[in-house]
Amino acid sequence: MFDNFQERRQRVCKRFIYPGIALLAIGGIGFALVIVLAKGPYQLMYVGILGIIVLAIGMAQLKKIANDFKGEFLIDVLNKNFQDVDYNAKSGFSRQYVQVAEFLPHGQRFNSNDMIEASYNGVKFKMSDIHIEVRVKRDDHVTYETVFRGPFIELDFNKQIEGKVQVLERGRSTLFSKYERIKMESVEFNKAFKIYATKSHTAFYILTPHFMEKLMTIENEHRGAFFFSFIEGKVYVALDSRKDNFEVGIFKKFDDKLIEEFENQLDLVKDLIDELKLNKKLFG
Amino acid sequence: MWLWILVPVVIILLWYIGTVNGFRVLEVKINEALSGIDVALTKRFDTLTKMWDLAKKYMAHEEATLTKVVELRQQSTGTVEDAQKLNDEMAKLQAGINVVVEQYPDLKANQTIQEVQSASLDGEEHLQAARRLYNSNVSAFNRKVVVFPASIVASMIGASKKNFFEAEEIKRNDVKFD
Q1: Is residue A284's pLDDT more than 60?
Q2: Could you give the CA distance from residue A127 to residue A106 in angstroms, rounded to a whole number?
Q3: d(CA B1, CA B5)
Q4: What is the distance between the alpha carbons of residues A60 and A44, in angstroms, rounded to a whole number?
Q5: What is the secondary structure of A217-242 as a DSSP string?
Q6: CA dist B118 to A146, A161, A175, B128, Å?
Q7: Mean pLDDT throughout A187-215?
Q8: Are residues A158 and A266 in the same domain?
Q9: Which residues, 6 or more positions from A212, have their beta carbon under 8 angstroms from its beta carbon?
Q10: Domains with residue ranges and CATH for chain B
Q11: Are residues A88 and A123 in the same domain?
């Protein structure tokens, strides 16, 4: 099943990667000799530049093979787990779209890919990986630091609510909410999350003891910081896992483990819908 | 010398004002939560009377409970004790209606009954949310009343522990360890 991809990768390695490394090494030796002798075979440095070009071509081809693998097998995994699947590796949420949830930092750089639109047990959802970076100026040079990286999910919510409720995991820096801080009756839950709402009644209406327990279970089962926002028939979930889901490393072995990893990365959506019983409608 | 007396007095005064305000804020929150309970009870009463209208020909024996609910609602003075009594009676009436709906398949299949039952379930969830919010505020208030040194201020301004809004009698009776 994976042989075709493995062979393509080997061909690219033989044609570009190994020769590229060899040319780069020759160029490196030439550069070292020029430095040590203050004169010498500087022409060898051009060989090194050629090596870099050959390596870059090889890397681009390896990346394409990894993307082709993802395109072929991720769709299968998605269709196996969900219904009405629509997947696009290159598209994602817009910056304005995710700001509706009101819990993500703005940042100066924003990127989103791997857009999945599907339904699971009758609950529609949209999911995409997002990466937000802020500009940091240090000693006259500018760098970019990641402030959020992970999946952002929009799910249909089964309760009709008035106002907005946010549940933000403690521990990772987030924007301060502009809404009233709410303390639930569960000490454990208050330790794990900060809760904000436009109306305290709505927070208690959504966060039933069962719901809080399940949120804690989900939080324990997935690494990273969770952010939830409940707004007008939708629940927005973001998990700052500092990982890019569904990425296939260019040298990663093509095997069943990789398919298993795809499956595992979809567990979050399934857990949210199953554990929080989002498929149980109170109306209709 | 004056400073040695003035600074502690100012600190104590500020603490006193802060603590009194703390009690007042919590009292406001408790009253807001109590009005939330009232709103939820009104919703519950409305759905119950709708259900009653739809099922009344099957349940003449529950008429006394309905009359009691209507009386309690009219006599309610807005205290938590009145809300508690009204809620307990409404829970009994609800249980009676549910039994009748289960007994008569034509009634159970009625679209309107199903819609009202859904609304009733939602009303129930709102009531539980209002109850938990009220109890959470009462719990914070009562803690402040008994914990030193805020307890001194509590006795000075006449603040005393408030009653919780208990779960419905009918629900408490569900859990029996005979």
Answers
A1: no
A2: 19
A3: 7
A4: 25
A5: HHHHHS-SEEEEEEETTEEEEEEE-S
A6: 46, 15, 38, 15
A7: 92
A8: yes
A9: A184, A186, A189
A10: 2-163 (1.20.1440.20)
A11: yes
Same domain, A207 and A268: yes
Rounded to the nearest integer, the mean pLDDT of chain B is 83
Provide ipTM, 2 decimals. 0.80
pTM, rounded to two decimals: 0.81
Instruction: Report pLDDT for A248.
Output: 80
Query: Which of A184, A200, A230 is the mutation pick for testing B, counting most B CBs within 10 A?
Result: A200
Which backbone phi and psi does A278 adopt, to 5 degrees? Answer: -70, -15
Cα(B131)–Cα(A201) distance, integer angstroms: 10
User: Between these two residues, B13 and A261, which has the higher pLDDT value?
Assistant: B13
Residue of B nearest to A182 (CA): B133
pLDDT of amino acid A281: 65
Q: Determine, yes or no, domain membership for A233.
A: yes
pLDDT (tens digit per residue) in B117-131: 888 888 888 989 999
Are A167 and A228 in the same domain?
yes
Say whether residue B130 is in contact with chain A using an 8 A CB cutoff.
Answer: yes
- Closest partner residue to B129 (CB to CB) among A183, A204, A283 is A204
More confident site: B97 or A189? A189
The reply to whether A79 falls in a domain is: no
The reply to whether A198 and A147 lie within a common domain is yes
Domain membership of residue A50 as a residue range: 3-71
What is the spatial distance between Cα A49 and Cα B44, in angstroms, rounded to a whole number?
78
Say yes or no to pLDDT of B3 above 70. yes
| Residue B167 touches partner A, C-beta closer than 8 Å | no
Q: Which of these three, A18, A36, A71, is where a domain ends?
A: A71
